[in-house]
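2024-03-11 09:14:02 INFO queue: dequeued item Metallophosphoesterase 1, len=384
2024-03-11 09:14:02 INFO validating residues
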Amino acid sequence: MTVLSGRRSFAIVLVLTVSCVFIFCEYLIYFPAILQCSWPETDHLDSGKPVPILHALFLSDTHLLGAIRGHWFDKLRREWQMERAFQTAVLLLRPEVVFILGDVFDEGKWSSTKDWRDDVRRFRQIFRHPRDTELIVLVGNHDIGFHYEMDSFKLQRFEDVFNVTSAMIVTKKGVNFLLVNSVAMHGDGCPICQAVENELFRLSEALNCSMGSSSTAREHCHDTQQFPSSLPIILQHYPLFRTSDANCTGQDAAPPEQRHLLFKEQYDVLSQEASQKLLWWFQPRLILSGHTHSACEVIHENKYPEISVPSFSWRNRNNPSFILGTFSSTSFLLSKCFLPEESSVVAIYCATAMAATLLLLVHFHLFKGTLQFTSCLVGKHKSL
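2024-03-11 09:14:37 INFO prediction written
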């Protein structure tokens, strides 16, 4: 009876231990990681007057797998990681607005109508959010295809689902965010590209008029859309033109062996011409982009800062992260929040499996010895 009781107790302890490790790795591990993050502090005063402060969270390149290339276990593992990370971040940090900087889906450029609906359903489950948090999604090349794969059907279904357009300004607490479909910034005069450029030019004129700095057609300013008098923050998927990631540093920058690889215009980054247009038209105080899956900080023309936001998914990097931004109409501060590393979680599981296996071997070896000792005693008792 004592032997059976010992076996039962051992089994219970083992199951409880494995369960605790599972709960920690799949749920609790995100809390200590994100609890280390906080909103950067900025000055709440402008000329002695209080100004509204906006808290915005930025992430990129979630790449939800589709029906063609997505293995079921890969989907399960990486999408669960993003869901728990996002839900924990929203719970603990309470952002007012969340921006996803494109490549939401991995196979949007190929998806059938049925597969697209399934991808959207999973997206809404993973990135569900409270009513006091707004979610704004930008388009990326994997959502609608690269320039020559892009068509009005794929673009329209994306814009219909996420209620965005290819060129629009979203204003929050006096902060102007310019959302750009960077896939359409090809400059070849294609119908979608031309429509986006025309709308961007119109928005630049409206912003210039709102700031009282329009250099052309001042008499038409009264007919333009009005925005707060604040330089915009450009949000897009492709980074502005840069030759490579050679000058990028930090633990989430591209690996050293990849940093000196030259970028291809209109594929890895925007063309020089398109980049110059955006800088000249809007003179942004900040640019935030994605696409490369790695972090980088660039200063264009010594005055326009750009931050490349790394991928949010374990599928694209071992150490995903997101950006926290505190904004007013005149200033901003950014900080980065790292998620748990996938390698750390795998190491915990491997260590647990090895320890459990070792304990099982030791336990059953001792149990076998106990049985032999008991049998020996019983045999001696019978002989007496």
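2024-03-11 09:14:37 INFO annotate: DSSP finds nine helices and 13 strands in the chain.
2024-03-11 09:14:38 INFO item closed
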